[in-house]
Amino acid sequence: MVFSDLFFLFVFLPAFAVSYLLGGWIDKLWSLKVSESRHSNITGTRNLVLIIFSLIFYAWGEPVYVFLMLLCVVLNYLSGLAIHYANGGARKLALAVGVAVNLLMLGTFKYLGFLVAQLEMFDIQLPVPQIALPIGISFYTFQSLSYLVDVYRGEAPVQKRFLNLLLYISMFPQLIAGPIVRYGTVAAEIGSRRVTAEDMAEGVYRFILGLGKKVILANQLSEISDQFLSGSLSDLTTTGAWVGIVAFTLQIYFDFSGYSDMAIGLGRCMGFHFNENFRHPYCCNSITDFWRRWHISLGSFFRDYVYIPLGGNRSHQAINILVVWFLTGMWHGASWNFILWGLYFGLIVMIEKYTLLKLKHVPTVILHVYSLFLIVIGWGIFYFDDFDRMTMFFQVLWGDAALLHDFVTESALLDNFWLWIVAAMLCMPIRSGVRSLVERCCRRHPAFANGLVMMGRTVLSLAILILSVALLVGATNNAFIYTRF
Amino acid sequence: MLNRIYIGLMVLVMVAMCAVFNLLPRSKVSELEKRDLTEFPAYSPQRLANGSFTSDVSAWYSDTEPYRDQLMMVSMYVKDIIRLNVGEANVTFHASKEPEVDAVAEQTGEVSLPEDYENHLTADENAKIANAGIIIVGSGENVRALMAYGGGAQGGLSFARAVNLYKERFPAARVYCMVIPIATDYYIPDKVKKRSQPQHPTIENIYAHLTGGVKPVDIYNVMGQHADEDIYLRTDHHWAPLGAYYAAKEFARVAGVTFRDLASYDRHVIRGYVGSMYGYSNDIAVKNAPEDFVYYTPRGIDYTTSYITYKLDKDFRIVSESGPTTGQYFHKFKDGSSNAYCTFMGGDSKITVVRTAVKNHRRLMIIKDSFGNALPGYMFYSFEEIHVIDFRYFAKNMVDYVNTNHITDILFACNIYNAYSLRAYDRYERFLTQSGAIQPPPPVIEKKKEQPTEMPAANVVEKSGVNEVVEPVQADTTGH
User: Fold this and answer.
1) How many Å from the N-terminal Cα to the C-terminal Cα in chain B?
2) Which residue would you say has higher pLDDT here, B376 or B323?
3) What backbone torsions phi and psi does residue A415 show, to the nearest 5 degrees?
4) Which of helix, strand or coil describes residue A50?
5) B115 contacts chain A (CB < 8 A)
6) B454 has a pLDDT exceeding 90
């Protein structure tokens, strides 16, 4: 199931909301009974409801692999306990075993087929196993890893209750396409959390914004990118290639950040505070900066669990950077183009370290253009997992095409004119801009400003909701890109 | 406080939407797309285990929303709003026509064939590509929707062989072959010409392979000569009755029968007609450009019409037949009816017999698709009897039928998609051998997920080279 599915919106979500509220009510009665104090905050029933719905959510798409996920939680639960109770060498061993189990699981289900296929290079012929990728495995194994390492480092308490760990790993808002929520971020909130009216309002608004990003923007943009990039490339024109890849650049941002918005919003409605996953990445002024703004939860994961343990910028930094970027690329999929894509950015980041980042007084415009150009090229590598097609695409992109330009490109630009404008504008921090503008204009009347902002919000929310539902009826291209990883 | 108001409002809206989407009866038929909607999936443990059950439930839920057609219309409006509305005057496309053709020809190694028809009417029109590759030409009230044709110069042999076979089996009868071009060649703007293959090479190829005295009724250029008149519907995939008139005239010439010109007919107009291309293209511009559906009925002559009607199941397979019953040949539709093309005989799934006052010992059988429906009405002055048979719905034995009814002339009249079909021969050949009894239809083998629009024409031919074309059934499923 995905968030932008009518069945999710009008069957699953309402059923969950009602059950969760009921759970909250039971929790409240229970709390009062236990302690008489208004401050005690039991979450047991709510958590149980959340777990049950999360398992249904996952099983809806993966009726068999849901057991694999459960197995993963059991193993991590045991590893966590072992790390907690063991001492010295045994502690290290427990961590090593736990990490190995997760990597093995990820390796088997995501990379085995790819690795076996690569053995052909060394003249070893083995039957390539055909294993379907379980949805979200890259996300939940990484969350498990963060749990084990945080417990090992003493940065987070061990989870002694199995159900709580199950909740952390299976929680449906972030289960299948991130963000990769660190255990430390939500550890406390699993056991005790409150939802204020502000949490709720922010959460709902965030969810609706995410829905709009996905359904109104990403889905329409995907029609454009598919039109140019998914078919035969032999009659692709150069301008068509550029329009197609720019459409994909916008599509993947709105698709993925929309999903993150929905996840963060849903979490917030339940009292969880996930970290941000995107901060207007296309407003970056270098590639280094881009990666601090794009898929932040993945970047910081590799920073904290790979780059720094390897020695960070203190010892053999170049190798560390390459390893991290190799892994970043590889994480996206078992295909050489993702690895190439990762290394491409690794190389740029490394070069920037010694050049661009040392320069001062470079006009911002140039920095933006430079970064966006490299990012768009990067998505070209990312898009094509077939090397022949990728080569052909880049040939066309650089002008080696039968035709430089034809009517189809103009049609794609003009027929979607406002879509392009709105999408480009929403890549910029326009929301906070509007807000501060309103506040500045009504400095004397903060209450009026708040009212105005909330009115804008309400109108926008309603418009997005209605439009999204209309666009989802009969929609066919609705899968999130990142559920593939 | 403001937060609470916002939450309250959103909850209210969600509750209302949930009530609408879960409590109201679900949609079953889409008038817009002219198809039955997805049914609730069958459950089996295997289908649950491989995930297809749950994903089908989601698909069913989304496809059968209450008010789905209205919601789809909203989404079409949205898709229309996001484009920049540029009038013809403001923008000129500099599509470089000549090099384009050369480049394509060079690349594929094909020589571009000479075309007889040159579009001078809408060559410079604006155009865009809508859903299912449908080309939307022009703007405002003159919008015209065109289907892309993907057939090549070598296609159509199966149809030619079928026609030849009939001539062989019925040597005494005159057999004619009319391939009806779709509107695209006549109205396609230059800048999108690449999107559709020219139809003339296929048509020529079919006529070149007719043997044994089968007479071609070549209407490609006839239509071209009248392309500045309303011979094709702008908003429907069919031709207009006027186009059929010129085709019928050419047929009468080839067949050597009398033919009356339009002065002998009464003209009728159904206003505000929007045809099938709206649902196929999902483009609101088509809906916003309704047209007049003009048809002609012969004046002052006696004729009787009788029907044998086939009952169909939801997969358009024949379940039973009833009749013959006498009825009207021309059905009257109200202004604004999207079913106006069913004026002729009320649809496809029947055998129609018209008996006229003519005494010339000529009895015509037309084996046709829905394009052919518009032809028989111009033949009432020309033949004693006219038997109209749809090639999709005929359960009798053809040999018996032709002999019993003393058919003297057999006209095959199909649009180019159906003439291109690889299965044409098998189909027509089966009519000659089938027993005439209606077999209970075999159970449906689980179908692959269907495309949301059943508009195979352009796509199917284009993509797979296989070209089974299911024409959207007009009357009987949608009701009048």
Assistant:
1) 54
2) B376
3) -70, -15
4) helix
5) no
6) no
Structure tokens at A412: 């794609």
| Chain B contacts in chain A segment 262-301 (CB below 8 A) | none
- Per the listing, tokens 């059968």 go with B64
The DSSP secondary-structure symbol of B445 reads P
Query: What single-letter amino acid sits at B199?
Result: Q
Is B423 in contact with B468 (CB distance < 8 Å)?
yes
Mean pLDDT of each 10-residue bin along chain A, 485 residues long: 87 93 87 66 85 92 88 92 88 91 90 84 79 86 92 89 91 86 87 87 94 92 88 86 95 94 93 92 92 92 90 84 91 89 92 82 89 94 91 90 80 84 90 84 82 89 90 69 66
- Read off the pLDDT of each residue in B257-262 and give the average, rounded to a whole number: 93
E-assigned strands of B229-376? 265-273, 291-298, 303-312, 318-327, 350-356, 363-368
**Secondary structure (3-state) at A32:** helix
A332 in active site: yes
Of B7, B58, B127, nearest to A204 by CB-CB distance is B7
A446 in contact with B at a CB cutoff of 8 Å?
A: no
- DSSP annotation of A10: I
Q: Are the beta carbons of B469 and B151 closer than 8 angstroms?
A: no
- What are the phi and psi torsion angles at B257 (to 5°)? -120, 160
Separation of alpha carbons A108 and A103, rounded Å: 8
Contact indicator for A443, A437 with CB cutoff of 8 Å = no
Chain A, 55 to 114: residues with Cβ < 8 Å from chain B are 59-64
Angle at B414 between CA B389 and CA B275, to 5 degrees: 95
Nearest Cα neighbor of B345 from B297, B302, B384 is B297
**Residue whose structure tokens are 């004729």:** B303
Contact A224, A416 (CB under 8 A): yes
What is the residue-averaged pLDDT of chain B?
A: 80
